[in-house]
Design brief:
By secondary structure, the chain is of the alpha/beta class. It has 18 helices and 14 strands. It has two domains: about 180 residues, no CATH class; about 350 residues, Alkaline Phosphatase, subunit A (3-Layer(aba) Sandwich), CATH 3.40.720.10. The chain is globular, with a radius of gyration of 27 Å.
């Protein structure tokens, strides 16, 4: 056998060995990643979660292997140093793969520890500290690897030899199992749905992190929502809609179940020290379960990990592309990695949400809904961070191509000019969302669905760019930019618009939708129907709304907002006179404070969410 043949045979053997290492490393990383997903109930959206974690982890490993392989081939071809390059290549691949496993292991441990720490702990907010800890741990791991090189190398080779076949089988099984669902998970043939053309279709559209503070529809100085303003001429626009929590999982749970945050837990706790995250129980009372049988229910979401959509809706499509939640690796990459590679489309796919594809997914699902009526909930991830408006929207309010991010949810007063630039990018993202929403409405009109549809538009929570706090859920108290959200309701055939000033909350959506459809409001829904206010049968009265997050609880009634903080501190604001919440009037108006305090004490106790 010639030298060339032997060399080619050696290279083939090497690449087979590297493929085995690649499979084993990906499997170990996958197992460690999935350890961060378990939430006490189930793996939510498990099919897609497994795919995303596997694809993302293995993609990184594959890039490293291909780069090292390219270097090896170049050096072998040009320098004829086969033995040296083979050794370097093998050692480099083994070190990188072992480092990836070790890094993910440390990341999983840190994510697990952070769950048991209070929200104010440094690990929850200081991403530089998290980065330093990870790098320090990696340095220690490399030191240990070099110290015990032979023993660890033999151990790693043994693991690969024993596990590469099961890992390959597992990988193929995943692709076969979830492959069909990658294209779409919308069922085209509907069974068990009453055919009744007299019932309206229902579209519930929620945007992520959209505050009324930055919507021209609600008086913002920048023209961010021109198309929604046109749509509002045929809608009831609620001017005082509040989120129940500046957290997507809890807020969307309230939207779909009509339950306050304290009823979304199994234990009787009035003020939780931390927000709950994770999936809901599989059997839960919601608007989807309430409408099943008379409506075909569909969910199209840009983030669905928090909601067990597969068990709630007749059909579900989840386009969440961000990867894991609650992990330092995600937080570091999500905030800092994209600006390093802005031209690469895959970076935006991994670290940003797109509005147009989500609406396109909803339209695709509509193509299979040959029978009516149907209820479709669509959650659109933008304008959630990172704020990455595409052309031509980028540059509308802030010239230039710079992508802006901030490593921490808190900032110093001297950084306000930079934060204002971030806000301009956020406003451009809203402008993009507004245009996509307009295109979706035009599609409904083209398909003849607009005139016979009930359309509700809202958000899960707001976004903050002031008082030293960014994003949402990070402020020491529940400030208005995080809580004030839009609510537009369009009735079938409605041609005139009206503005309604009544206080409304997300728990009111389920009773309102069911009431409009002429069905009895279920006893498990904790909110109140807004239909009587729309019809003018009830004035604003003394209706109150509640918001809760991280041990903070706020109640609003009339012009007043009462806030109780985790350690018992209380504050009172008059939002009509002080919309920016600058002056605490607790001592000046003790009677008002006492009345609102009583509302907190007498609020409804937790209801069981799981069906009997």
């Amino acid at each position: 056998m010639s030298h060339t043949t032997l060399q080619n045979h050696s290279i083939k053997q090497d690449y087979i060995a590297f493929l085995k290492i690649f499979l084993t490393t990906g499997f170990l990383v996958l197992i460690l990643e999935l350890s961060q997903y378990y939430d006490g109930y189930r793996y939510s959206s498990s099919h897609l979660d497994i795919l995303r974690v596997t694809a993302f982890s293995w993609f990184l490993i594959l890039v490293v292997v291909l780069v090292l392989a390219g270097v090896s081939v170049v050096m072998t071809t040009l320098m004829r140093l086969t033995a040296l390059t083979d050794t370097l290549f093998k050692d480099a691949v083994e070190v990188v793969c072992a480092a990836l496993v070790g890094l993910t292991f440390v990341d999983s441990i840190m994510a697990g520890i952070s769950r048991f720490l209070p929200p104010s702990n440094p690990l929850s907010h200081n991403y530089w500290l998290g980065s330093i800890i990870l790098l320090a741990t990696l340095a220690v791991a490399i030191k240990v690897y070099t110290q015990f090189y032979r023993a660890l190398k033999q151990w790693f080779n043994n693991v690969v030899a024993l596990s590469w076949i099961p890992c390959l089988s597992f990988s193929l099984g995943i692709l076969i199992y979830i492959g069909p669902g990658l294209v779409t998970y919308c069922i085209t043939e509907l069974n068990g749905v009453e055919a009744n053309e007299g019932k309206p279709n229902v579209f519930l559209i929620t945007f992520d992190s959209m505050t009324t503070r930055d919507m021209s529809l609600y008086g913002y100085h920048r023209r961010t929502t021109p198309y929604m303003e046109e749509f509002a001429k045929e809608c009831y626009v609620f001017e005082n809609m509040r989120s129940i929590c500046p957290s997507t999982s809890i807020a969307l749970t309230g939207v779909l179940t009509g339950k306050h945050p304290w009823s979304q837990v199994t234990k009787d706790s009035s003020l939780l020290p931390m927000d709950l995250t994770g999936a809901l129980p599989q059997k839960i009372q919601s608007i989807a379960t309430e409408l099943k049988g008379s409506y075909y229910t569909v969910a199209v979401a840009g983030t669905g990990r928090e909601i067990a959509m597969e068990t709630q809706f007749d059909a579900a499509r989840n386009d969440w592309v961000h990867g894991k939640l609650g992990s330092f690796f995600y937080e570091i990459c999500g905030r800092n990695f994209h600006p390093l590679l802005p031209p690469l489309p895959w970076a935006q796919l991994l670290f940003s949400g797109k509005t147009a594809p989500l609406f396109a997914g909803a339209v695709q699902c509509l193509g299979g809904l040959k029978q009516r009526p149907f209820f479709m909930w669509t959650h659109i991830l933008p304008p959630h961070l990172p704020y990455l408006p595409p052309p031509p929207f980028k540059g509308t309010f802030l010239p230039g191509e710079e992508d802006l991010s901030h490593p921490s949810p808190t900032y110093e007063e001297s950084e306000q000019p930079y934060v204002d630039k971030m806000r301009a990018r956020y406003d451009e993202f809203i402008l993009y969302v507004d245009a996509c929403f307009h295109s979706f409405l035009e599609t409904l009109k083209e398909k003849g669905l607009y005139d016979n549809s009930l359309i509700i538009v809202s958000s899960d929570h707001g976004e903050s760019f002031e008082k030293g706090y960014l994003y949402h859920g990070q402020s020491p108290q529940l400030y208005e930019p995080e809580l004030r959200i839009p609510l537009l309701i369009h009735f079938p055939g409605q041609s005139d618009g009206s503005r309604i000033s009544v206080l409304a909350g997300q728990v009111d959506l389920v009773p309102t939708i069911i009431d409009i459809l002429g069905k009895p409001i279920p006893s498990w829904a904790e909110g109140k129907s807004l239909l009587p206010y729309i019809q003018g049968k009830i004035s604003n009265g003394n209706k109150a709304t509640y918001s809760m997050s991280g041990g903070k609880l706020a109640v609003l009634q009339g012009n007043y907002k009462f806030v109780r903080l985790p350690h018992g501190t209380e504050k009172l604001y008059n939002l009509e006179k002080d919309p920016n919440e600058l002056k605490d009037i607790l001592c000046e108006e003790p009677d008002v404070a006492a009345r609102l305090r009583e509302l907190i004490h007498n609020r409804k106790k937790p209801n069981k969410m799981v069906e009997k």
